């Protein structure tokens, strides 16, 4: 596929700074920008234990997942958020946004592929797709595998995120090389509210923390109504949802709320992503009233010879995994359908 200039609509100035970081002999993080002052960087908002030379992820209260760090590659702050990228010993490069782990090179593909293909492989010939968030470009990479798609909009609020991923995660950000991609630098929720009725075949949300606030977003009827309106009849929404191991697992309420807005199909799926707290991530798949959508069975399988801008076939997703994602443990089934 030939490379073309990506169209970009930017509503915010490009303002962010870079900090150079390195480790001293004791593997303690040293900040060059702060005159060699030892500091704890990238900590989550509720703070975390200090392990010199290690990054501590405390996404879940009472638990911690730690990564041994080789070196810090990037640390910068935009007008919206702070981004940290470091090279780990066991998970490749790791990205931390405002103290919350976003992805690791080791398993990012599992999340990106499932969030994308559970939706796009469930409807025939999707042509126009909107991605909200997903500034790393991985979901764009996965959308590019679908040859029927003619137009891809991505709405990302922070140009810093896009620039950093392009520089340090080229195999993920390769999605931006697809000539069908159109980048809009602005707030995603506001953008969706301006979209004309029936514009998209699929909308993929990847703008929210996967283990918490997404439940609040999926409980916002006004926002969901904007999403449903922006979809064509039989169009689909794909969004991250609570892990089934979450202490305050509220998926029954989320499903009930989505069914008020989406009059087609509403389903919960899940998969394993070791990086995320509990090692599991959930997905909400919803369709609008119109041509029926059966998310549990792929009706639009990927063409093994069509990989778009990706450098190879999917590493995680296949038709068997697609069907298995909707098979729920007994204790979850009782919550969803008591």
Structural summary, described in words:
The chain is an alpha/beta fold and 338 residues long. 23% of the residues lie in helices and 30% in strands. It has 10 helices and 17 strands. It has helices at residues 108-120, 138-143, 159-168, 170-173, 188-193, 214-217, 221-230, 251-261, 319-324, 330-336, and strands at residues 7-10, 16-19, 21-23, 29-31, 37-38, 54-57, 65-78, 82-88, 93-97, 100-104, 128-133, 151-155, 181-185, 200-206, 231-241, 266-272, 280-287. An 8-stranded mixed β-sheet has the order 1-13-12-11-14-15-17-16, sandwiched between helices. Strands 2, 6, 7, 8, 9 and 10 form a 6-stranded antiparallel β-sheet that branches. Strands 3-4-5 form a 3-stranded antiparallel β-sheet, with no helix packed on it. A hairpin with a 7-residue loop joins β6 (54-57) and β7 (65-78). The radius of gyration is 20 Å and the shape is globular. The N and C termini lie far apart (49 Å). The relative contact order is 0.14. The model is unreliable at 1-15 and 17-49 (pLDDT under 50). Keywords: Polyamine biosynthesis, Transferase. It holds the Pfam family Spermine_synt_N. InterPro entries: PABS, PABS_CS, SAM-dependent_MTases_sf, Spermi_synthase, Spermidine_synt_N, Spermidine_synt_N_sf. Residues 52-288 form the PABS domain. The active site is at 206 (proton acceptor).
